[in-house]
Write a structure and sequence with these properties.
There is one protein chain. This protein is α/β, with parallel strands linked by helices. It folds into two domains: about 220 residues, P-loop containing nucleotide triphosphate hydrolases (Rossmann fold), CATH 3.40.50; about 70 residues, YebC, transcriptional regulation domain (Alpha-Beta Plaits). It is about 35% helix and about 25% strand. The two termini are about 40 Å apart.
């Protein structure tokens, strides 16, 4: 069994009358990329700050690398890298100087630090920009510098908080590939994002928070399997009768059929050959139909099903 890098047990954090984290528990296993998701205000940032011992909490236990996490646990903090959502670099230092400064907070040996800085520059693709000041960098390059500053000291655990916000597709692709490479080299990663396609592509396991609680946990496949709607089939159909709708509902795994304009929407709760069965019905009855599409559930569907569709602050 994989060892636990992080264990949070029954964490409670209040801000006066507001319960920000409500008996939240989670484990992060060695070598995984864990996606920590939740709507705005769900308690993700508060949980991470408690994990880093930047916030006092009311109840619960947090261990990192098997040891209790405390504000003065510098041996543990030296093994953690944090890449915050807001770019945190020093604008009077060059790219290389920034990385060296943040690396120097953990590594005193100049020779070792120089090697670490060069590795971070190479991993983030900042080689030709090493002498640039942050104000000369694009948004994507700034994000990559932010990452380099957070990972240069070779941490075993890295926390990424929305690392691809407001970057172009090329920079996003470079950042995601860099995260995969860090993971391949042995880093355990906690990844927060509102881009569900990124999480689905990147993370080996996912935890969804809402209102301070752990409301769902599992692999992408396991979370999708928890949905009632496992497949949505849409058919262009000029004429639809009550008989057609009634007959379709009799097909195995079809649980909902409705018409929207000239399109028929059929939802299924499982099965592997739903489209063949449905099209077979129309051919048997000699009922003409137009374009047909089928949609499998996405992580975004899971997220909205679990946390609701109402807007959050």
């Amino acid at each position: 069994m994989e060892s636990e890098i992080v264990k949070i047990d029954q964490l409670v954090k209040r801000y006066r009358e507001k319960l920000a984290v409500d008996h939240f528990s989670m484990e992060v296993r060695q070598g995984e990329i864990l996606g920590l998701l939740g709507p705005n205000g769900s308690g993700k940032t508060t949980t991470i700050n408690c994990l880093l011992s930047l916030l006092k909490y009311d109840k619960g236990n947090i261990t990192v690398f098997g040891k209790a996490m405390r504000p003065d646990a510098y041996d543990l903090k030296g093994q953690i890298g944090v890449v915050p959502q807001n770019v945190a670099v020093i604008h009077t230092l060059t790219v290389a100087e920034n990385i060296d400064f943040f690396c120097g907070l953990y590594i005193r040996d100049k020779k070792k630090r120089k090697q670490c800085v060069e590795e971070a520059i190479e991993m983030t693709g900042l080689g030709e920009y090493r002498k640039y000041y942050p104000k000369k960098l694009s948004g994507g390059l700034l994000r990559r510098l932010n990452i380099a500053c957070g990972i240069a000291h070779r941490p075993k655990l890295i926390i990424f908080d929305e690392p691809t916000v407001a970057v172009d597709p090329q920079s996003r692709n470079a950042i995601l590939e860099g995260i995969r490479e860090m993971n391949r080299q042995g880093a355990t990663i906690i990844y927060t994002s509102h881009y569900m396609e990124e999480v689905e592509e990147l993370c080996s396991r996912i935890i969804i928070m809402d209102r301070g609680r752990n409301v769902a946990e599992g692999t992408t496949a396991q979370l999708k399997a928890s949905l009632k709607n496992r497949e949505t089939i849409r058919m262009d159909l000029v004429t639809c009768t009550d008989e057609i709708i009634r007959d379709l509902k009799e097909i195995n795994h079809v649980y909902e059929v409705k018409q929207e304009g000239e399109q028929l929407i059929i939802r299924c709760d499982g099965g592997t050959h739903n489209l063949l069965h449905i099209m077979g019905y129309f051919e048997e009855k000699n009922i003409p139909f137009g374009r047909v599409t089928t949609e499998l559930p996405t992580l975004n569907d899971v997220f909205l099903e679990i946390t609701g569709k109402e807007l959050r602050d």
